[in-house]
Amino acid sequence: MLIPYETLLQLPQETLANLIREYLFGQVEDGSFASLDEQELAQAIVQCQQALKQGKLKLEYSEDDESFAIRSADQIAQQQD
Questions:
Q1: 45: containing domain
Q2: Which of 12, 34, 59, 62 is most deeply packed, by most CB within 10 A?
């Protein structure tokens, strides 16, 4: 189930930032980023917030394992095809 961006705005800022951090750390592990220092992390969080607002990234809730994950809209569209 996709969570609308407007709903994300109702979350405490810290909760949204933690979801984004989890996504970014996953990107580091996947090799999308070489590393993230504090300044790069802060900048990446802002970029992710913008991507969520623009619909390039989406927050998805998995009912199967009761978890949330940020994924690219393209990745979600491919799975639905």
A1: 2-27+37-79
A2: 59
